[in-house]
Amino acid sequence: MRSCPACGLAVPSEVCPQMPSAQHWAGGDLFVQPDWAAIRCRECDLVYRSHALPLSELARYYDALEYESFETAQTYPTDRIVVSEILRRMSSGRVLDYGCGVGRILQQLGSRFERWGIEVNRRSAEIAVSRGIKIITEEDLDVAGRVGFECVLVTDVYEHLTEPVQLMRRLLGVMKPGALLLVVTGCADFCPRGLAIHEGWYFSPIGHLQMVTLRHLSWLAQRLGLVLENATRACHYDVRLGQRVWEWGRLWLYLASRPGRFYRTSKLMRSLPLFGKASGWVNPPAVCCARDHVVAVFRKSAATLDQEWG
User: Which among 42, 157, 183, 222 is least surrounded, fewest beta carbons within 10 Å?
Assistant: First the structure.
């Protein structure tokens, strides 16, 4: 069993039932997720997988993953919140997007900002460059960051990190005093009611290694000397009303067809064909319309001045 990726401790306060291994395809290659359980850390409250792919396999998976599977021509609701939070506080400046994808968010900021990105997927990085984004590698980060960034974005990335706190600390080292750090990721506090954490769709992707909680965000701010200005709950996707009704309806059927769940149903209702069908579902249906993400805005305070800014 892995120790907590954030604080390094191996003292869980909660362990969800073990989930079986699963197969995932990327770029024509097969990747196998080992048996795992969702563990909530007693110290920092991060919820993480007990077992994950080796680092070399994760790197190969991300490189092979078709960017079309996670990118869109449109912005996500969380993207729009991020852009709004930035523009409310800044009119220009140097912005770094760690894991920028095809430059979806940076593109919305416009040419008033000096836009930098780090992206491990080669095809996504090429598209970002064509959109005017300056792509650098992690090895280039210290050199590019000598002038300092006024804003750093970590959107849809925190859940993938094997050592999240170490990366946050490194990013702080290239941020100017008073700079913004915006983190967008899944939040275990906002899982649909009635579902255990490990049953939600968020742990389905093989690269999703953990989920934050609001307490974890507060712990992270205290650990790194940041100020947590606000945390906004949001849905990651734009979902039409009909799709929302379909997803919530299927989830209700799944929960109502199982004894001891949150919903109470009469014997007559359980005899209906729909309930019989739902009782045979092995896993709960995905609910992508839930407001299960958080947009956290941190600010680097004077207390976190690094030597290079002294």
Answer: 222
> Alpha helix locations (H) across 153-264?
164-172, 214-224, 241-256
Q: What is the DSSP string of 5-38?
A: TTT----EEEEPPPBPPEEEEETTEEEEEPPB-E
> DSSP string of 126-150?
HHHHHTT-EE--GGGHHHHTSS-EE
Q: Do 24 and 33 form a contact (C-beta atoms < 8 A)? A: yes
pTM: 0.91
| H or E stretch covering 185 | strand 175-186
Residue 94 near residue 106, CB atoms below 8 Å: no
Which residues have C-beta within 8 Å of that of residue 9, sequence separation ≥ 6?
A: 3, 41, 42, 43, 44
Residue linked to tokens 């006024």: 150
Question: What's the Cα-to-Cα distance from 241 to each of 58, 233, 244, rounded to whole Å?
Answer: 36, 19, 5
Q: Residue 16 — φ and ψ, nearest 5°?
A: -80, 160
Count of CB atoms within 10 A of residue 245's CB? 11
Angle (nearest 5°) at CA 59 between 160 and 77:
35
